[in-house]
Design brief:
Phosphorylase Kinase, domain 1; 3 domains; 7-stranded mixed β-sheet; 21% strand; disordered N terminus
């Protein structure tokens, strides 16, 4: 396809001659800044809103608070928190001890406790403290005493003389059924233990004790948030981290606390100053890329594992070591049967040919039969190791594999609509009718969620290194699925920089740092770059933008940067909200293709940008020559 996106000679000149701008604040720093404690006042209660709470009237992002910890200042000037059916007034917040002092506002105001109701808290989010004791009221019991057992007192305001109460330390203290017999109702209400002595002396009354309130300790952040704050971080939420929590640091993100290297070291490491490329190395790099462009050659990198001279034994050893992670292994004869001797070819790629097939239960499948192995099975092991760790709606489902002698096959769920390239990257009327702007936007969001999962949601982080339209498959509902993990790299959760032995990916989508460390280190931000180029190409092809001679003479991102408003306005041919979708896709794409990795957002932020209202999205600085 002769698309201006692939005007690589100009792109390389721009990459080599551009003076990179200073590193901008990363998305993590934005979150660190946004999660700063915010002053808050409701009636007589004044404090700083901080994790895990959110409150009405305070503009803090959702990732700064934990779900279920919402405070509400009502029209009466009372600060409230709602737990199940209980409305609790917050009269004090102690962040140091993670304690709320609260009063149950659902209790009736009568002085006689037989009208009380059980006070319940959300014990998945809060717990009682050692400051609390409990009042249990037994109303109209069958047993009558004279004198009373020492642990009970008579509720004199209830007629009949058979209602009692007791004070105890533990909420779950059991009552022997044969002591009081059967009672019409049993009511348990917490109260502040400091009132116990006064209550025993007959002053104050039970109702005064209940109105004095009690305390609860919140569970969110226990065991890690204090460490995070002590290290200079701010506690927050990240759904892809264990238990959903994370520590936002000025220059990074951690589970528990900020890195010991401190802000200064992190900042120095984050600041990249490009000093230029020598004439000799520039000529060599440019010549290499020009030759690859002319030949239509795909870069292949060395993979994660190094094999011996014999491919199959090396693979067998690998499979035995990782056996628990892999789905079913099939024999070659079984694969031939499922594909009817490879009679229905679906497509062909750099690593092999894909055939249509059916499982014994009739489930349609796609079988990728790999080419003759010249890399000791590295691509096979790479794909099995990567995709077998995944489970996500936007990642193609891996069903099994075959290795028998030199025969190797990978088995996936069948995607009836083929690849994204088939629909979104062929500027013809049929493609335009098939995929509307709304559908393209949904696909872009789905791919973003899939990449976010690979980068943050897996037990082991995965960087794909070959995001392109051909590797995005579409199911019957056009839900996108990321596929082809042959070039993927695995890294531990705390790693951010990835060591690679050579350029990998497809011309037109490779991030600058992958083929030149002049621009930084390869990382998950390399996938972000590829995603951005793909999104911009989706936008350009949807508008058949390469029909314009003015566009064809320029590097496409540069052209769309210069004609941004004009292009967005032209997108609303039928529906005016098309312009909003196009605007978001372009802005996100331009952010993703920033030259320096640290200037690009993470896929988490990309997904948030796409799903925002779009009005506050700003065009990034121009990172290529005009």
């Amino acid at each position: 396809m002769n698309h201006p996106l692939h005007a690589l000679p100009l792109l390389i000149i721009l990459l080599l001659s551009a003076v990179p701008p200073s590193v901008q604040e990363s998305d993590v720093f934005f979150r660190y800044r946004n999660c700063a404690p915010a002053p808050y006042k409701c009636g007589s209660v004044e404090f700083d809103i901080d994790y895990p709470f959110s409150a009405n009237g305070v503009d803090r992002p959702d990732y700064c608070s934990y779900p279920g910890y919402r405070l509400l200042c009502n029209t009466d000037g009372k600060l409230m928190i709602y737990m199940n059916s209980t409305a609790l007034q917050v009269i004090h917040i102690d962040y140091g001890n993670k304690i709320l002092a609260v009063i149950d506002q659902t209790q009736p105001q009568e002085t006689c406790p037989d009208h009380y109701r059980n006070t319940t808290i959300d014990e998945s989010k809060f717990m009682y403290t050692d400051r609390d004791q409990f009042l249990t009221v037994y109303v109209n019991c069958s047993a009558k005493f004279s004198p009373l057992p020492f642990i009970y007192d008579l509720v004199s305001c209830v007629s009949g003389g058979s209602s009692y109460y007791r004070l105890h330390k533990n909420k779950d203290d059991s009552l022997e059924s044969d002591v009081l017999g059967s009672c019409n109702s049993t009511i348990v209400v917490p109260y502040n233990s400091t009132m116990t002595g006064s209550l025993a002396a007959g002053n104050p009354s039970l109702v005064d004790v209940i109105r004095g309130g009690f305390t609860v300790r919140w569970k969110a952040g226990l065991g890690w948030c204090s460490d995070c704050q002590a290290s200079g971080g701010r506690c927050g939420v990240n759904g892809t981290f264990p238990d959903g929590h994370t520590c936002y640091c000025p220059h990074g993100q951690a589970i528990g606390s900020c890195f010991s290297s401190g802000p200064k070291t992190s900042r120095n490491r984050a600041i990249i100053v490009a000093t230029g490329v020598s004439v000799v190395s520039g000529v060599i790099l440019l010549s290499l890329l020009l030759m690859c462009t002319l030949c239509g050659k795909k870069f292949h990198g060395l993979l994660s594992w190094r094999g011996g001279s014999e491919g199959t034994p090396n693979i067998e050893s690998f499979l035995q070591k990782h056996e628990a992670q892999h789905p079913k292994r099939y024999s070659y004869s079984e694969v031939k049967t499922m594909t009817k001797s490879f009679g229905h070819k679906l497509g062909q790629g750099g690593f092999g040919t894909v055939y249509m097939g059916k499982m014994p239960n009739g489930k349609p499948i796609a079988v990728k039969l790999l080419k003759s192995c010249k890399d000791n099975g590295q691509e096979f092991m790479n794909e099995v190791a990567s995709i077998s760790r995944t489970s996500h709606v936007n990642i193609v489902t891996f069903l099994g594999y075959c290795i028998q002698g030199s025969k190797r096959a990978l088995i996936y769920e069948y995607m009836p609509n083929g690849s994204l390239e088939r629909f979104a990257f062929r500027p013809n009327s049929e493609a335009e009718d098939s995929l509307s702007w709304e559908k393209l936007f949904e696909i872009a969001v789905g791919i973003a969620h899939g990449l976010e999962y690979l980068h943050r949601g897996c037990n082991t982080r995965i960087v794909h290194f070959d995001i392109k339209p051909h590797n995005i498959l579409l199911d019957q509902d056009f839900c996108p699925k990321i596929s082809d993990f042959g070039l993927a790299k695995l890294c531990m959760q705390k790693e951010s920089v990835i060591s690679i032995d050579g350029a990998r990916g497809t011309i037109g989508y490779i991030a600058p740092e992958v083929f030149s460390k002049q621009f930084g280190e390869a990382s998950s931000k390399s996938d972000v770059y590829s995603y951005g180029m793909m999104i911009l190409e989706m936008v350009g092809t949807r508008k058949n933008i390469n029909a314009s001679a003015d566009v064809s003479s320029k590097y496409f991102p540069q052209w769309i940067y210069e004609h941004f408003e004009e292009y967005c306005a032209s997108a609303c041919e039928i529906r005016s909200d098309n312009s909003v979708l196009v605007r978001k896709m372009i802005i996100v794409g331009l952010w993703c293709i920033q030259l320096l990795p640290n200037n690009r957002p993470s896929m988490t932020i990309v997904a948030e940008m796409l799903q925002s209202c779009g009005n506050d999205l700003q065009i990034p600085p121009q990172s290529f020559l005009s």
